[in-house]
Amino acid sequence: MTYEPRIIGFLCTWCSYTGADLAGTARLQSAWNLRSIRVPCSGRVSPELIMKAFDQGADGVLVLGCHIGECHYDNGNHRTAKRLPVLHSLMEFAGLEPERLRLGWVSASEGERFARIVNEFTDVVRELGPCSWQQNGHRPQAVRAILESEV
Amino acid sequence: MSYTTEIQATARDLLSSDQVSCVIGYEVGPRGRTRPAFIYTADDADRLVWNQNCTHNLTTYLHQKLRPNGYTSAPAETERVAIVVKACDSRAINVLVAESQINREQVHVIGVACDGVFEGAGLGRSDGATLQHRCTECGERTPVTYDTLIGEPQAVDTLDSEHDLAHLEAMTPAERAEFWLSQFDRCIRCYACRQACPMCSCPTCLYERDDSQWIGMGNGLNEKRTFHLGRAYHLAGRCIGCDECERVCPVDIPIGLLNRKLAGEVEAAFGYRAGLEPIPSPLTTILSGKEG
Ligand code: SF4
Ligand code: SF4
Ligand code: FES
């Protein structure tokens, strides 16, 4: 069986989640790899949620919110826009491939854009292969592989 | 006059005129170790000292002194304390003020234009010669905010601070993961790092809740990594780089690397360094830069 990545999507209920619905009713093909989690606002997506997703075996995490200026809580997505890049560089510094985490803006009417982002992201993550972030109390697979290749 | 006598004179003055109820400073304990001291009477002011083993960031005690009833009530407005700070510690005062944790009027800041503190200080194994990492990087040496200044304002050349980060950044993601996991593996979750930090001021720490469904308090490597990365992230744009968290860690986890990495990211993105002025970190504001 070919490798298929597991992708967690944190979708803002006011925009991207509805955008996902629209993509569905319009019968647009979007990758089935995405497991959607509906959040009240992209500002709700704390770093711990993202790390938890990776801890539990996600290969990629997609955070989608309303376009700047369209957040239903006025500035929730301003915070997301500022915080996510910082988290991104932190997780990269801790050993995550940066391509595995992505932030995007999708409005409720952009079903097509939703499908495109999800498909692109899934392709990128598929290309990267399984993520080594997950720990089961032991060293991750990728690290084991390095250690073994050195023997 | 030496710094020590100047600090003692200031403290005596403040206490005898009832301007403050307590002076938070340093003393030398019976085993010769420099340690934090709380001075409540003018007679006790003689205990205060200044030396290059004054490593502790005393601002972490301000909450306890100014909010004796914890966070459930407003700060006791009548309480006023004095505190001895180095240049780095003084930046913590600004962050605490910006975050409404303390009122600046309630603190009499005794700022020391310091010459740096020694490696091993606070642990009783200072060699009296090697400056701590933060001090070799520090170009300030003069507190950014003070009510009384001990010593003369001064500036020094700093050493290159990037080398230790560059080494890690040059690694592949898998190597960095290995590096950090082997570090976090040692953590015993004693929370000493958090306790030492003046910015770690939440009444209930997110990482110390046994009712949490999604952030564990356990010693699994996942949970320890989430704790460390999460804590570093919570301090992004707030950490003033005193490196006390790293100093107090009983298992020598290089927490400062994470803090410096994030301070660099915030500075690159927003041109902001924590604590230079009493304004909130741009990471906690909305895009136009206003607090929203
Ligand atoms: S002080 Fe060290 S061992 Fe204790 S919780 Fe912090 S990092 Fe872990
Ligand atoms: S995180 Fe560490 S270096 Fe930063 S302010 Fe807190 S104790 Fe100081
Ligand atoms: S409501 Fe959609 S991002 Fe805030």
Give structural notes.
The complex is a heterodimer of chains A (151) and B (292). Chain A is of the alpha/beta class. Chain A is 43% helix and 15% strand. Chain A contains five helices and four strands. In chain A, strands 2-1-3-4 form a four-stranded parallel beta sheet, with helices on both faces. In chain A, helix 1 (16-25) packs across helix 4. Chain B is an alpha/beta fold and 292 residues long. In chain B, a hairpin with a 5-residue loop joins strand 1 and strand 2. Chain B is globular, with a radius of gyration of 19 Å. The termini of chain B are far apart. Classes of the chains: A alpha/beta (151), B alpha/beta (292). The A-B interface holds A 47-49, 51-52, 55, 68, 74-75, 78-79, 81-83, 85-87, 89-97, 132-135, 137, 139-140, 142-143, 145-146 and B 168-169, 173-181, 206, 214-215, 220-222, 225-226, 229-230, 232-233, 236-237, 258, 261-262, 265-266, 269, 282-287, 292. The structure holds iron/sulfur cluster (2 copies) and FE2/S2 (inorganic) cluster. The site of one iron/sulfur cluster has 13 residues of chain B, from helix 9.
Q: Which helices and strands, and how do they pair?
A:
The complex is a heterodimer of chains A (151) and B (292).
Chain A: E1 7-12, H1 16-25, E2 34-39, H2 47-55, E3 60-65, H3 76-93, E4 101-105, H4 111-128, H5 141-150
Parallel strand pairs in A: 1-2, 1-3, 3-4
Helix pairs in contact in A: 1-4
Chain B: H1 3-16, E1 22-28, E2 34-39, H2 62-66, E3 81-85, H3 87-98, E4 107-112, H4 133-137, E5 148-150, H5 163-169, H6 173-184, H7 192-196, H8 221-234, H9 244-248, H10 255-270
Parallel strand pairs in B: 1-3, 3-4, 4-5
Antiparallel strand pairs in B: 1-2
Helix pairs in contact in B: 8-10
FE2/S2 (inorganic) cluster (FES) binds next to helix 3 of chain A.
